[in-house]
Amino acid sequence: RKEVEQDPGPFNVPEGATVAFNCTYSNSASQSFFWYRQDCRKEPKLLMSVYSSGNEDGRFTAQLNRASQYISLLIRDSKLSDSATYLCVVNINTGFQKLVFGTGTRLLVSP
Amino acid sequence: GAVVSQHPSWVICKSGTSVKIECRSLDFQATTMFWYRQFPKQSLMLMATSNEGSKATYEQGVEKDKFLINHASLTLSTLTVTSAHPEDSSFYICSAKTGGYEKLFFGSGTQLSVL
Fold it and tell me: What is the pLDDT of residues A15-59, one digit of tens each?
């Protein structure tokens, strides 16, 4: 089983739609969680950290369920500029800390 | 925010040659830098953790003699792909953190193509 699993997509949605991505992780010792955005052949950029209580940043909402080892990202009112690959990233502590990246979920927002 | 500069952005080389990639933290000191590799449609895979003034820590399956890492100063880490082969063609990217992982900054990446 992969340490971090995501549906690769692509998710094709019209502008204005709401879309949700899910991510599961296998290591229960995982300490911190992030969503990154990556455009084609560019470096990943931090979108938001994910907190146990859930957190929101504008149109983006992240949720964490430690019991189910599940993370989600909700994007409301999708914009064309939201088209990108969204990476679920987990900080795993196996004696030393290490970031593990999911393969990403590709989002395509169309006019 | 913090800036990490990576050069070159892309490189094309012949099989058997060596390629050096530089990663610099421009406005902060980075005792630890990370090197990743990303093949098309795959996730970033951590290759090694570069520690200033000491040997890098390589992930399982990454050949340390092939991927030489030097972190001689608090602002510069280099990755040298020695005797590159076509299967080494990939997107290489570095990162550095100033504190916890919420303060992780990436370089812009290097696309390596080995002919």
Answer: 999 999 999 999 888 889 999 999 988 899 999 999 888 899 999
d(CA A25, CA A35): 13
Contact of B44 with chain A, judged by CB distance below 8 Å, is answered with: yes
Q: How far apart are CA A29 and CA B93, in angstroms?
A: 26
Q: In Å, what is the CA distance from B42 to each residue of A28, A103, A110, B10, B37?
A: 23, 5, 24, 19, 9
The answer to whether residue A94 neighbours chain B at the CB level (below 8 Å) is no
User: How many A-B residue pairs are in contact by the CB < 8 A criterion?
Assistant: 43
Sign of the alpha-carbon torsion through B12, B15, B17, B20: positive
The three-point CA angle B21-B49-A33 to 5° equals: 115
Residue B2 has pLDDT above 70, yes or no: no
Is-contact B24 B75, C-beta < 8 A? yes
Q: What confidence tens digit (pLDDT) does each residue in A2-23 have?
A: 889 999 999 999 999 999 999 9
Contacts of A97 (CB under 8 A, 6+ apart): A31, A91, B101
Question: Which chain B residues are Cβ-neighbours of A49 within 8 angstroms?
Answer: 102
